[in-house]
Design a protein that fits this description.
The structure is a single chain. By secondary structure, this protein is mainly alpha-helical. Helix content is 72%, strand content 1%. The protein is built from eleven helices and two strands, in the order ααααββααααααα. The longest helix has 30 residues. It starts with a helix and ends in a 14-residue tail after the last helix.
Length: 292
Amino acid sequence: MMLLSAWISGLGLGSMYGLIALGFHVTYAVSGTVNFAQGSAMMLGAVFTFWFAQTLGWPMALAVLLALALCGAYGLLVEFAAVRPFASRGSEAWLMATVALGMVVDNLVMFTFGKEPRSLPSPLAVTPLQVGEVGLGVYPLQLLIPLAGLALAAVLHLVARRTRWGIGMLAVVQNPAAARLMGIPIRRAVAAAFALSAVLAGVAGVLIAPLFNVQADMGTLFGLKAFAVAILGGITSAWGVMGAGLLFGLAEALITATLGSGYTQILTFGLVIAVLALRPQGLFGRAAVKKV
């Protein structure tokens, strides 16, 4: 039963990594850049939801919608202030700029929201699931999270492959000049990708907030692991990113359940290094083809 609980909690945790990593996939697929402030976007989703629902007493549905809208606005800010000025000049300084902006936001939230961890209650994270008289040790929310993650990955895949808007977005990074000639507003497409990236991270924050404490630095480790997941899965594939997230979460949960939490980070990141040494393009990615 302990291993079953680890499997279920691992799938839920892995879906969180996958959702945040989908944001890396979206920005890379559209602009060839990534948002290293993803962890901050996740934290903002949780903090804003807590603030609106618990502090102001607004209905949870309204609190979540407003929190995700603000996450989208944050994604636009990241693109406008930390990516566009550098990417437009061919500089890769956006790498450090997005990291720095994320740290600024984390510290601003720490000064305004406070350092103390807060609890965000949810009816789906009150009573653990039971099979007969045996408790599984997991909450219904932990079953809902993988479903939400897989559904969002499916939507992204369908939009990117089956709609004109999605195909146009992909054309921006493949051939910007041709995309501009075809009338695709490149700057708006890239900005929309960063907004969507932050919204996906915000969704992860909202879903995981009832299971973990809400605090200013909660997104730091999640963002780092999500980037590892994005690379591990093959950052160009939405399904690959989500699949790698599930595998990473399962590995974490099973290692913790069998060997103890002291070995979790050592072994999971060790496995990431080993896999990438064998498959540099990731588990589900394809090696780039260069024409000469």
